[in-house]
Amino acid sequence: MRSIPVATAAFVLALLPTVARLQQTSTAITGQVVAAENAAALPRARVTLWVGSKQITSIFADDRGRFSMTVPETGTSTLVVTKAGFARLQRPLAPRDRELRIGLNRSASIWGRVTSPIGEPVVDAHFIAIPVNVRATTALTPLDVFEVATNDLGEFRFGGLPEGRYQVMAGAPENDRPSSTVDVRAGDESGPIDFVYTPFERRRRPVASPATRPPRVAGGIQGRVVSAAKRPVAGARVRVTRPGYGGDTATFADAEGRFVLRGLPPGSYALEGSKTGYVTVQYGQTQAAVPGLQLAVRANAVLDDIVLTLPRGSAVTGTIADERGEPLEGVTVRALQVRYANGRTTALQAPGVREGLTDDRGRYRLFGLLPGAYLVAASVDDAISTADAPGYAQIFHPGATQVTDAVTIQTDLGRDVSGIDLVFPRVATSRVAGIVRDASGSPVSASVLIVTSQRSGAIALEPRQAVATSGDGTFAVSNVPPGDYVVQAFARRSRGSVAEFGVEFVTVGERDPKPIVVRTTAGSTLQGRLILEGLESGEGLVAVSAMPADFDYAPVMGGGPFGGSRVTKGTFTIPSLFGPTRFRVTGRPDWYLRSVLINGMDVTDTPFDFGLAVQTVKGAEIVVSNAGGILAGHVTDAKSAPVLDYAVVIFSTDRNKWFANSRFLKLGRPSQDGGFEVMGLPPGEYWVAAVDSIEGNQSFGEWEKPEVLEGLSARATRVTLTERKRSTVMLRLIRR
Question: Which range has highest mean pLDDT (259-273, 550-564, 575-589, 635-649)?
């Protein structure tokens, strides 16, 4: 069961691919995996069933190397068997196969390094190794090709190779791709096989969303992108964003690292740079959990000579083993950040840091980490092929099965952290199974995720995908530790959209829970009038988005309430609404939500519960205004010296308004001149506090925690904001 990375604290995820299970009659097969050299049983060998070019299921052999599974009676079925230190084996299945004995030979490996013509490591270059005899005689299949990607050092390694001759080459079909032919024998470590390679980079032209159409008084930003060694980073992607800004404007640095961004409406922006092999950072950012500085863009002016430095980042390395101390190949390893988002504590994959897979030695390398505190988590999708056997739940450094018992590791630029080794213990896990039915009660093919329930009060981990449902709607997910969960199902009726969504709660204990039924619906649609007070000709678009107040009822993938409103001549339609929902303004940081009326009730600051019913709620009225207050100022330290790096938390003096996504709660960061400006604040009384450090960015973070706000209120400055008025303050820095 593979964890699903979450993009942003709102759990907005890209649509996940599903692997269709073939609807055919099936036959049970059993077998044993042994070492070919001495017939010794090989516990935890991974046995994967492929039908044609699709992977169907994967399991671990038990303590005696035995396994059992069901396979379709029609179609071309193949077992692929792997284990760290042994060569990958393909075993085509014959129609009469029932009991198998599979012997694995010792493996070989090929390793090396890829550098650019100027000697720098080439990161994330894809290389393949193809058996020469296969390539010469038959058409290639996915099972014939070994594929790897280079790490931050430019290193690659092909493991689990059967004895033979291989052609190693760049995976991209380019005219100048390098290649080399290597002969290997069982037990060989062949290398180094080094390449000098300049990978082809696709450079997309930046596309501005409708919300970013430049006004007549537009400004701009230009400068250079450089490495920590002050060398130009050619091809780096540079973009700007604003809090509440619906789109982004992006470009690519040229061969000298220069970039130019034009057509920006006046305001404060975060400038972000990214490129494979470098850490994705904002201008002025020094830590992973703290945003960078803001750049104040003025009308008809261009900020010049902005230098954006992209560091290589740090790496975490280690080895993953099973309970016997034997290395495990193909384990997913992630660097997680614990953060507060949308009213709950989460442990989610660190932004910009890719997950890693252990190699044939059980080793992993996570790279591209900014300075900060991280959890290291390891997980496998495979259950152990024994009835009622304990399984492998997700584990955290230094070996905890509960995230609350995990210990963070600290990274610093230029310093790798090694020896972060983990051993999977056998623990009580369960299998959650059931069926998905649509609104009519018919079984439906769907994507299914299991998520830690918000009601449990537990730290939220990444959603995990179940084995994809077949046409009969059935699903199953293994290795689920005890806890309270919500199972979410997504049924697609049209390409790229989620037409139906359903949830069902399940409590997992020491035994498998009873099969559950998840019923999907199309949800509610809200219709009404959108009133924009103060809109002038030529101004950018303003959008109103629905935000979940209870994430158990919020789709963590696809569309749903995260899609904004559709507006036509002052009327709006927001489809696919589920559960308790709040509304907020997006697209323009200088606008604020004045009021929301649904069924005659004021729900501006109160969630409206749409439930899971299929309904159309008409007659709603949403009023958005550009008359919000503006708070600006500067910060000094205890000696009255100006402070240039800080965060400003602005929050209502009314504690009832301290909730996630509150319109009365905002975070500000200084611009290049050391001053701050926060717009779009509803009239009222506020506390404002300037702090030396606080985790999070303008969208989420610990500054939303009521206990943090309570602590800051005792040392904060009280201000009263009114509509259409700019207020200025001089704040004394609070050290936390």
Answer: 635-649
SS (H, E, C) 538-574: CCCCCEEEEEECCHHHCCCCCCHHHCECEEECCEEEE
- 3-state SS, residue 135: helix
Q: Are residues 174 and 129 in the same domain?
A: yes
Helix, strand counts (H, E) of the chain: 2, 57
Same structural domain for residues 185 and 233?
no
Coil, strand, or helix at residue 213? coil
The stretches of 241-316 forming alpha helices (DSSP H) are: none
CA distance linking residue 491 with residue 444, whole number of Å:
7
Q: How far apart are CA 170 and CA 126, in angstroms?
A: 6
Strand pairing class (524-533; 302-310): unpaired
The DSSP code for 178 is -
| Distance separating alpha carbons of residues 88 and 100, to the nearest angstrom | 16
Q: Which helix (H) or strand (E) holds 580?
A: strand 580-586
Instruction: Please report the DSSP string for 21-33 in residue order.
Output: PP-S-EEEEEEEE
Query: What's the CA gap between 101 and 93, in Å, rounded?
Result: 12
pLDDT tens digits, residue range 593-605?
999 999 999 999 9
Two tokens, residue 696: 């999070």
Over range 153-160, report the average pLDDT: 95
Q: How many domains does the chain fold into? A: 5
Which residues form the domain of 649?
629-732
Question: Are 618 and 635 in the same domain?
Answer: no
- Say whether both 175 and 144 belong to one domain: yes
The four Cα atoms 46, 366, 235, 260 give a dihedral, to 10 degrees, of 130
Helix extents (H) in 420-474: none
Is the pLDDT score of 229 beyond 90? Answer: no
* Gyration radius of the chain over CA positions: 28
